[in-house]
Every structure is written in structure tokens, then in C-alpha cells.
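User: quick one, sequence for these C-alpha cells?
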């Protein structure tokens, strides 16, 4: 090949890469502002939309480094005369602070939690509409985000509730900031190393496939449906599907999901036995990601004095599928002592 031909080939390759980069940028999905607006506009989130998103600028200490942060959260204030310790909720991945709407507001046989005490729903960095980006999204960086939020609002004596990856953010935060976390609730939480054959198909793709970090370009509502349905014991609702689709339709959110999936490896599993806070474990009977028989039971063995409540007919999201059951457990634990 002559020099001129080589030059044309190199130039052609560079132009192709530039075109790809431009194409990916053009397909970056929704902005964080758009994601937030559309999430709150979902019918299931009507009560949360009325509250309005709170924004607190401050400092976050992540990975030992202090950075400028913008905490986005929803605050449901206690009714006049109600009181007691606040509850802080941490969602999973890919998810958002609005994922708790049904637990807090949906009609049911059990009274809703909203109003009984101060409730905070935190948007974790790399999720939903949170606009502060981290250099790397790891379980520890997300736990650091949670403890930084507690410090920014000077919240103490809280019951910290986390679901799925949010459960691991929560138990790490409980270990790192015991002066702020009085009680701990883990719902279908991650935390332990998994063997090669224990990863679900969508997790395997995120962990192993080259270019998985660009998956947001192919984000599609109907492609998400079968993967999400695997995690529910009942047919998913359209609002639930739309919420997950929106959470994935932003490049930073997708990056966080990919990096967290690749970071899941039980890094601090040996420390779980050091958790001293009273702990409630809530598990969906049909969870296929972290089964109650293996993972839930292991948390129960490792955390002294903890109690495992298995929710019948529920999958990975019992707080959305069996609202009354989860409310009953959470209310008794938070308001009625350590049972």
C-alpha cells in the first residue's frame, strides 16, 4: 500500500471515529432535567410531584476527596404533633428516589407512612436526576454520597432504608457513620460476592460485553420490559416500566449502572458481621437476583439480632408489589422498637 493510500485510510478511520462520537453524543438520551421532569410527571408519582424536589448545595466527601455537590431529594415532613426519628430511603440501580412512591402514598389496608415522621428520599449520584457526576461510580462512592447527605442536613438517629444496590449503599453507610444511623432496613440487598454462574443475563452483559457503557444508545422501553418482569412476582405496571426506562435514558445514569454492576464483588462482605444497628431484613420470596434462601439468610446469620421477613409472592421489589406487607414490617420496626 502506497503512502497516499495509507494516509487516506488513516484519515478515513479518524473521520469514522469522529462520526461515531458525534452520533453517540447526539443519542445521549434525555438530559437530567428532562429525566426528572418526566419521572415526576408519571401518574404514580403525583404526590411526590406536589412536594417538589429539594436541592441542597454542599460538600460531599467521596473516596477521601471533598467535592462540590448538589444533593437532590424529596422531603415529606411530619404532620404537626408527629415526631420521632426520620427515615431516609436509598433506591437501587438503575432506579430513582421516586421508586418509593407506592410505599409512601398508595392506598392500602395498612396506613401510609407519609406524615408519621420526617421522610427523606435521596437521589443517589449517577441516578435519576442527580446532576453531580462522580469520577467513578462504586458501591463505596455511593455510600459516601449517602453519608455526605446525612452530614449536609445534619441528620442523626435515622432509620436508613435501602433496596437492592441501595441496600449495600445503606449498610456501608451504617458502618461508616454509626453516629448518624440508628436503625437499618435492607430490602433484597446486595453485599456478598457471587460466583460466575450466579449472574443474570443482563448483568453478565453489563459486566463482560465490550462497549456496554454505550448501551443507553439502544435504550428501548420494550427491550426493558422482559428483563424487568423477571424481578417482579406480579405483572409490572406501565408506570413502573416507564420509570425504569427513564432512569436508563441518560448517559451518566447508564455509566453508573455499568460501573456499579462491574464493581459488585463483595468487597466489604467480611464487615457485614460488624453491623451493630438493629436491622430488619425484608426479602421478596421470589427474588431471583438475591434469593432469600441464600442471600437473605446469610445477612440474617451475619448481623447479630437481625430479623428476616420474607414477603410472599413478591420478587425483587416487594415495596412496590406487596405494599401493605412492607409497610407493616417497616412501621413496627421503626416506631415499635427493635422487633
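Assistant:
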Amino acid at each position: 500500500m502506497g503512502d497516499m493510500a495509507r494516509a487516506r485510510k488513516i484519515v478515513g478511520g479518524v473521520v469514522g471515529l469522529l462520526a461515531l462520537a458525534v452520533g453517540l453524543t447526539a443519542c445521549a438520551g434525555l438530559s437530567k432535567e428532562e429525566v426528572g421532569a418526566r419521572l415526576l410527571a408519571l401518574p404514580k408519582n403525583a404526590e411526590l410531584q406536589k412536594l417538589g424536589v429539594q436541592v441542597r448545595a454542599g460538600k460531599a466527601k467521596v473516596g477521601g476527596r471533598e467535592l462540590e455537590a448538589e444533593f437532590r431529594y424529596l422531603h415529606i415532613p411530619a404532620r404537626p404533633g408527629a415526631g420521632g426519628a426520620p427515615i431516609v430511603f436509598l433506591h437501587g440501580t438503575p432506579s430513582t428516589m421516586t421508586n418509593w412512591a407506592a410505599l409512601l402514598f398508595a392506598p392500602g389496608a395498612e396506613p401510609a407512612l407519609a406524615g408519621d415522621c420526617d421522610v427523606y428520599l435521596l437521589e443517589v449520584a449517577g441516578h435519576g436526576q442527580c446532576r453531580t457526576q462522580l469520577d467513578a461510580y462504586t458501591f463505596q462512592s455511593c455510600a459516601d454520597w449517602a453519608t455526605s447527605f446525612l452530614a449536609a442536613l445534619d441528620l442523626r438517629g435515622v432509620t436508613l432504608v435501602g433496596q437492592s444496590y441501595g441496600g449495600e449503599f445503606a449498610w456501608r453507610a451504617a458502618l461508616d457513620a454509626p453516629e448518624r444511623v440508628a436503625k437499618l432496613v435492607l430490602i433484597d440487598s446486595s453485599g456478598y460476592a457471587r460466583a460466575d454462574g450466579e449472574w443474570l443475563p443482563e448483568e453478565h452483559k453489563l459486566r463482560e460485553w465490550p462497549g456496554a457503557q454505550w448501551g443507553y444508545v439502544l435504550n428501548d422501553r420494550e427491550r426493558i420490559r422482559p428483563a424487568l418482569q423477571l424481578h417482579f412476582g406480579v405483572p409490572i405496571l406501565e408506570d413502573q416500566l416507564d420509570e425504569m426506562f427513564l432512569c436508563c435514558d441518560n448517559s451518566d445514569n447508564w455509566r453508573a449502572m455499568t460501573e456499579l454492576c462491574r464493581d459488585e464483588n463483595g468487597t466489604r462482605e467480611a464487615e457485614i458481621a460488624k453491623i451493630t444497628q438493629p436491622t430488619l431484613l425484608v426479602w421478596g420470596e421470589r427474588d431471583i437476583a438475591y434469593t432469600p434462601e441464600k442471600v437473605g439468610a446469610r445477612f440474617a446469620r451475619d448481623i447479630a439480632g437481625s430479623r428476616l421477613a420474607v414477603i410472599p409472592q413478591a420478587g425483587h421489589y416487594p415495596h412496590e408489589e406487596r405494599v401493605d406487607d412492607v409497610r407493616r414490617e417497616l412501621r413496627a420496626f421503626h416506631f415499635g422498637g427493635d422487633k
